Amino acid sequence: MLPEIVALNTSSSLSVPWWKVVYDFLPLTQWIDSSLHNAMSPFWTTVTEMLIIGVLILLFYALVGLFLVYAERKVCAFMQNRLGPNRVGPFGIFQTIADLFKLLFKELVPIKNADGFLFNLAPFIVIIASFMAIAAIPFAKGLHAIDLNIGVLYVIAVSAMGVIGVLLAGWSSNNKYSLIGAMRSGAQIVSYELSVGLAIITIVIMAGSMQLSVIVEAQRDGWFIFKGHIPAFIAFIIFLISSTAETNRGPFDLAEAESELTAGYHTEYSGIKFAFFFLAEYINMFIVASIAATVFLGGWMPFHVGPWEGFNHIMDFIPPFIWYIGKTFFVIFLMMWFKWTFPRLRIDQLLTLEWKYLLPINLVNVLIMAFIVLMGWHF
Amino acid sequence: MFILFSAMIVIFSILTVTSRKILRAAVFLLFVLVSTSGLYFMLNYQFLAAVQLTLYAGGIVVLIIFSILLTSHISQKFESSGWKKNIFSAIAALTGAILSIITILDYKFSATTEAAKEVNMKLIGKSLLSVDYDGYVLPFEVISVLLLAAMVAAIVIAKKGSPKTIGLSKLNQE
């Protein structure tokens, strides 16, 4: 899996003014690539590029995690008519950093009679799965670590592997609450994966490709949620519901229902291992939201309205990265809204919702979308 | 990279069959399957790699782990098997390995000068459903029928008697 920024350009200096890089990252990445190639052998170039990307993704991961925890607390407070964190730093923005240090310094409690190897492995599986998914997401034009031709399928495949970590965590803790939490989460994720996949397939039919860059490019003259009429909108709603369930977030957070299971599958974890689960939950939410933004809301493409030339031009001035982040956080805000306004479902209600409502609607929806594309009725 | 992946496959396969804790064996199996998909990524056949990840790692291993969660307890440990069993399974494994090695060595791999094809979704979909010489429509349909049969069988097994008896038992409960 080599990073595919190896589109060789022999020019060894940036050929565009530096501020234009904000609109198109391709010259920058090509410049880095070619100057690295001039400095060392191809093997070491690849190694260095992988290191750079790894460090960047790690940094991004930590920042997004910190910010999302803060945002969740603020949104929750807003929904409940409170202020939320407001003591550490202006508007409490340093609260999550303080919390992070608290988590880092906490003791790692070893569990007697637990399966030590699996117990320690579980948080890593969860976090590696989310890491692998984040690598394939296009952040802006040219800012795309690896552009697989089956991008969407890859992201679904990899992010679904997180459930193995959850199952292992629940079993190896040797605790009945953890075990029940893990079982619930397994049943839930395996069934909702179907809906996520089918909702995305509806859009893949329209785009005619699974490559994320092609999907984004196809939305230059209008986002898919508008282009695809009603089926695309239904698919978007189904995707939101089922991806909320897949990330184990409320109102589907049965795996960690604190009123009945203390903390579900991560009851026995403490310190940094608990932080891993916590962080992975937020990053999974970010990944799901960014897939929704990429596939339905046009990724980093600016908002264009057909004949309004002036309006379109103004929209082009906003850098693609800002568009991408804005859309992603809009979807994240929707998911937080769900969490703090809906009551938690029971497990049988959850499975009924998936198998008796979402799945049939989804199947019919895919058929309708295929028919619309066949007849050329979309924009 | 190839050496790394194949070493991982061999080591974790051995660990899978020698581990005496059942869930650990399942996790080692997961590692084997993930490194196999790494091999597919190396071959630049990304579709197969992703399918390997979704179906085997994300689907089958999850089901295996799920059934282990339902049936066994953490303190459970398997007895190490007797030497007779060990010898016979070693013979069976060796015969299988020798047979496949002989077949591979027999086959003449001719190097092609063709450029590597990019296998995208359209190509796969078209060849799956084409009736031409290179098409795969017959195996595709046969597998669909097999899957349908499996699903019907699963429903029949899971069904609780006829609707009449279900209604009666409900009445009794009330």
Features:
heterodimer, A: 379 residues, mainly alpha, 0% strand, disordered N terminus, B: 174 residues, 7 helices, 74% helix
Protein model, in words:
The complex is a heterodimer of chains A (379) and B (174). Chain A has 379 residues and is mainly α. Chain A has one domain. The longest helix of chain A is centred in the N-terminal third of the chain and has 38 residues. Chain A has 15 helices and no strands. By secondary structure, chain B is an all-alpha fold. Chain B has a domain of 55 residues. Chain B is 74% helix and 0% strand. Chain B contains seven helices and no strands. Chain B is extended, with a radius of gyration of 23 Å. At the A-B interface, helix 4, helix 5, helix 6 and helix 7 of A face helix 2 and helix 3 of B.
The proportion of residues forming helix of chain A, as a percent range, comes to: 55-70%
Large-scale geometry of chain B: extended
Q: List segments of chain A where confidence is low: pLDDT < 50 over at least 5 consecutive residues.
A: 1-13
Number of helices of chain B: 7
Total number of helices of chain A: 15
Our measurement of the CA-to-CA distance between the termini of chain B, rounded to an integer number of angstroms, reads 65 Å
* Biggest chain contact: A-B, 37 and 31 residues
Q: What order do the helices and strands of chain A follow?
A: HHHHHHHHHHHHHHH
What's the number of extended β-strand segments of chain B?
0
List low-pLDDT spans of chain B: none
Could you give a short account of the major beta sheet of chain B?
Answer: none
- Overall mean pLDDT of chain B: 80
Strand content of chain B: under 5%
Radius of gyration of chain A: 22 Å
Class by SSE composition of chain B:
mainly alpha
- Structural category of chain A is mainly alpha
